[in-house]
Amino acid sequence: MAVVHFAALMTETWSKSWAPTHIVLVALGVYVTIRAYQISSDPLKSVPDAAFGARYTRLWYLWQLWRGDFQNTNIQLHKKYGKIVRTAPNQYSIDDPEAVKVIYGHTTRFTKGDWYLASAAPQTLPTNLFAQQDQKKHAELRRRFNNFYAMSTLVQYESHVNECISRFSEKLKEFSESKEHIDIAHWLQCYAFDVITKITFDRRFGFLENGEDVGGVIQSIDNFNLYATLMGVFPWLHARLSVFGPLVGLKYIIGYVNQALGERRQAKAQGLDLSTVPDFVSKFFVNNEKDPEGFTMLHIFGGAATNVVAGTDTTAISLSSIVRQLATHPDVLTKLRAEIQDAKAAGKISDPITFQESQGLTYFQAVIKESLRVHPAAGLPMWRVVPEGGVIIAGRHFPSGTEVGINAWVAHRNEDVFGSNPELFRPERWLVDREQAAAMEHYFLSFGAGSRTCIGRHISMLEISKLVPQLFQQFNVLPASTWADIKELNRWFVKPKGLQAVVELRE
Ligand code: HEM
């Protein structure tokens, strides 16, 4: 009887207070055992960890992303450990030019890692080129959009870019008269915003009027990038929280795009001939008329919104890098100005310079390349998932399902490819024989690589190639503080902070 009593008491005690603790302890024990087994049988276990704990948890990587300077940490890690470093469980950062073709090549079966999922609202994923993981769906989507971004189409937008350059130039003239300090990176972003909205909707956002962050758009894109960067580390959480994240953050842009599309639809209904309006939206609508099932309203919305969200920070950061380097390397600037002057004297360039003419300025092209090399806009490894069968990278076998990625910042500091002192800005680096230039080109990842290369790269080159010669012919950009140790914030895109300058009108 006493035994029965004792047993009953134990059962009651177990079920009341001990059971949850025990369940947690047992679950923890099972988890630790499984992880210990996984780690001990991991073929990559001898690969160095980026930091203590990186092989057990993603928290170290999350912390690095929160700090906002992962591009520098990533460079240091590869300097210390060589070609492969583990940044999180099952995730490896790579520095090996031979891996580019393997990971990103056109025929590869690698898919984008889950980190990208947080860059799209789940309901818009089917038309989101950047985040789409499924190779077949991506290829189909990309085919639908490729033509709109082709070089031959973009030159139709030159007059739009000219209009924005002349507005920007007026603004800079005002600044040169008032001699006030301006944040040149901010003004370059204003330029990028006005150009992209002009070529997309045939109307400028209006940033170049007084530099105001219209509708809080710049701030909301910054918030979105912060959200997507961090949430990408735990993408399962994104599926639950996304309504509070990107959608709410980008409300103004969504509203703007919807309104612009609504107006265009109305104008079309009232008889507007879309072929007379040279912008993306008109071309999208014409395509929709031809193929309403294949190219839907969601495609139109996705394409227009992507232009604004993906095409502004990137172009502004790249322009900032060019301006920063030219303003702090007078010898390079002198050479560039001489090249422009000579081309002008020889009647090889017009005023304003055309995109095609700018391609003939060899030194200028090297300046652009080198500026984008020392400061690529995207500052995180571009994660990809190893396909079935696994793969050999840098002499190691990576099983299927492993995540690997190359960070352009790391690639561009590779001395074997770019020569000694790769951190230094030296456009002459590119003016070498074909073979050497091709090797550098191969490991130049500012626009990504392979089937997922940037679809908008020609647009940004159009904006850059036309603005820079004009800007430096007309003005001196004088740093108002030391720009050598300027702060940068990495939220996928690495933004310079506080490029204070004074602008001077040249004689
Ligand atoms: C200098 C300016 C730019 C830079 C440095 C840049 C950089 C990049 C990079 C590195 C990627 C590849 C990302 C990855 O594989 O993880 C990418 C993809 C992409 N970019 Fe850009 N970008 C720029 C301008 C633009 C513009 C102007 C647009 C749109 C108008 C744009 C739209 C896109 C899209 C849609 C993708 C995804 C393409 C795909 O996966 O098929 N970008 N960009």
Give the topology, please:
Layout: H1 2-40, H2 59-67, H3 70-81, E1 84-88, E2 91-94, H4 97-104, E3 111-112, H5 135-146, H6 151-154, H7 158-178, E4 182-183, H8 184-201, H9 207-210, H10 217-231, H11 235-241, H12 246-249, H13 251-269, H14 280-290, H15 297-310, H16 313-328, H17 330-345, H18 355-359, H19 362-374, E5 382-385, E6 391-393, E7 396-398, E8 403-406, H20 408-411, H21 415-418, H22 434-442, H23 457-474, E9 475-479, E10 487-491, E11 493-497, E12 500-505
Parallel strand pairs: 2-8
Antiparallel strand pairs: 1-2, 3-5, 4-12, 5-8, 6-7, 9-12, 10-11
Helix pairs in contact: 7-8, 7-23, 8-16, 13-15, 14-15, 16-19, 16-23
Protoporphyrin IX containing FE binds near residues 318 and 378.
Protein name: Cytochrome P450 oxidoreductase
Family: Belongs to the cytochrome P450 family.
Cofactor: heme
Task: Describe what this molecule looks like in 3D.
There is one protein chain. With 507 residues, this protein is α+β, with helices and mostly antiparallel strands. It folds into two domains: 1-41; 111-505, Cytochrome P450 (Cytochrome p450, Orthogonal Bundle), CATH 1.10.630.10. It is built from 23 helices and twelve strands. It has helices spanning 2-40, 59-67, 70-81, 97-104, 135-146, 151-154, 158-178, 184-201, 207-210, 217-231, 235-241, 246-249, 251-269, 280-290, 297-310, 313-328, 330-345, 355-359, 362-374, 408-411, 415-418, 434-442, 457-474; strands at residues 84-88, 91-94, 111-112, 182-183, 382-385, 391-393, 396-398, 403-406, 475-479, 487-491, 493-497, 500-505. The strands form four sheets. Strands 1-2-8-5-3 form a five-stranded mixed sheet, sandwiched between helices. Strands 4-12-9 form a three-stranded antiparallel sheet. Strands 6-7 form a two-stranded antiparallel ribbon. β1 and β2 form a beta hairpin. α7 packs antiparallel against α8 and α14 (280-290) runs antiparallel to α15. The longest helix has 39 residues, at 2-40. The radius of gyration is 26 Å and the shape is globular. The mean pLDDT is 92. Bound molecules: protoporphyrin IX containing FE. Protoporphyrin IX containing FE binds next to α15, α16 and α23. Protoporphyrin IX containing FE binds at residues 129-130, 142, 306-307, 310-311, 314-315, 318, 377-378, 382, 446-448, 452, 454-457, 459-460.
